[in-house]
Design the sequence.
């Protein structure tokens, strides 16, 4: 039971907030559950810091998210060439979509997403106590969530992300505040887990375990023991799981955190399926030449026309520059000879080189991706769109070419 139900000395703003107190290894963790877009949550963080003394403040943030809050303009320094070359276009796009959704909520309620986390960091700095960033890197969480589900669920994830950007329905602030009620959260997450246990594990359960391990690790590193107190500001959805793990987790905290922070191993079967398809197609082209030079030339032409043509179509749909479109057409057919570099990556790098993003593109990026036309108007967004549409077009072209080549032989 929450101590807020029985402690009449608490400020009024805290009496309806989900607060749990857990003592582990002599350290008392005061865990405050918050809603990430809520004025009341910000007031609750300020109130508990003013009401009680703490030796550290832990927040549900990773280094990159904390940096983003401290320096909201940092993303303007993003190097698109490096993002594409390092294969991070998907993660960047997903992060931008999520931030766009949060921005819409912020505009609706006049408060920035995660303002209660920033209030925790600011309050700790004002009192001269350390700030602990205990959440797992958001990129790792997104990768683990993505790799935890099958192909159809991945389409569902992408569809949900896209829908969240363009959804314009107003969300009542009272509904956000209701998310703090423990029984509602438990039932909601139980239903979520029933429908997608792997997603629940990646997005919620693993992070609960990671944050519990990080809290224990940080306390040990700081030499905290009997009588030390730590305020933990987390989303209310993690309150129950985190507190339970703080009480029961027995693994070495450093090893546990390192295990959960590891990037998921890449699945090898999609790669081998793609390689097998291409090998089969080229064997078929070789057999076509064996049967007849004209038949082989036609098969090779089909490969170039379909892979290059669909790649070109993807570039055209993305509104690419003519040079980027030409790069897509050339890159599509030779994809098998440069594994690891998608044709969309080559076309997108040409796009970023020809139409270098302006300062204004970065300044309006979050606003632009919230509108359909914005993806084509903004040079950063259009480069990412070019990457995805050209890559997708190449895949369609490979399968289409394969079907036509095999049909021509039998």
Sequence:
């Amino acid at each position: 039971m929450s101590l807020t139900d029985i402690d009449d000395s608490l400020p009024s703003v805290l009496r309806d907030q989900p607060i749990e107190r857990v003592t582990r290894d002599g350290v008392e963790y005061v865990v405050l559950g918050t809603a990430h877009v809520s004025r009341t949550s910000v007031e609750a963080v300020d109130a508990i810091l003013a009401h009680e003394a703490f030796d550290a403040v832990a927040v549900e943030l990773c280094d990159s998210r904390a940096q983003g809050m401290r320096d909201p303009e940092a993303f303007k320094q993003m190097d698109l060439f490096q993002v594409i070359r390092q294969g991070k276009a998907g993660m960047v796009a997903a992060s931008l979509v999520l931030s766009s959704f949060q921005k819409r909520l912020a505009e609706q309620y006049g408060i920035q997403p995660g303002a209660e986390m920033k209030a925790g960091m600011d309050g700790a700095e004002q009192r001269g106590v350390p700030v602990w960033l205990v959440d797992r890197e958001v990129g790792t969480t997104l990768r683990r969530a993505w790799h935890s589900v099958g192909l159809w669920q991945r389409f569902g994830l992408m569809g949900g992300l896209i829908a969240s950007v363009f959804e314009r329905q107003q969300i009542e602030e009272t509904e956000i505040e209701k998310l703090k009620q423990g029984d509602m959260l438990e039932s909601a997450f139980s239903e979520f887990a029933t429908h997608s246990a792997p997603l629940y594990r990646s997005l919620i359960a693993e992070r609960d375990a990671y944050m519990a391990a990080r809290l224990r690790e940080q306390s040990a590193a700081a030499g905290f023991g009997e009588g030390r107190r730590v305020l933990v500001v987390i989303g209310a959805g993690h309150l129950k799981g985190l507190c339970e793990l703080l009480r029961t987790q027995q693994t070495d905290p450093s090893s546990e955190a390192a295990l959960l922070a590891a990037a998921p191993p890449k699945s090898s079967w999609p790669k081998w399926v793609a390689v097998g398809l291409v090998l089969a197609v080229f064997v078929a082209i070789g057999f076509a030449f064996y049967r007849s030079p004209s038949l082989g030339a036609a098969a090779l032409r089909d490969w170039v026309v379909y892979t290059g043509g669909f790649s070109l179509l993807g570039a055209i749909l993305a509104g690419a520059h003519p040079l980027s479109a030409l790069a897509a057409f050339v890159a599509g057919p030779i994809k098998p000879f440069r594994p690891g570099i998608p044709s969309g990556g080559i076309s997108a790098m040409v796009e970023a080189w020809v139409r270098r993003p302006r300062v204004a593109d970065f300044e309006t990026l979050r606003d632009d991706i919230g509108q359909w036309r914005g993806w084509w108007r903004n040079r950063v967004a259009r480069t990412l769109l070019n990457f995805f549409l050209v890559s997708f077009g190449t895949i369609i072209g490979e399968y289409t070419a394969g079907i036509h080549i095999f049909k021509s032989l039998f």
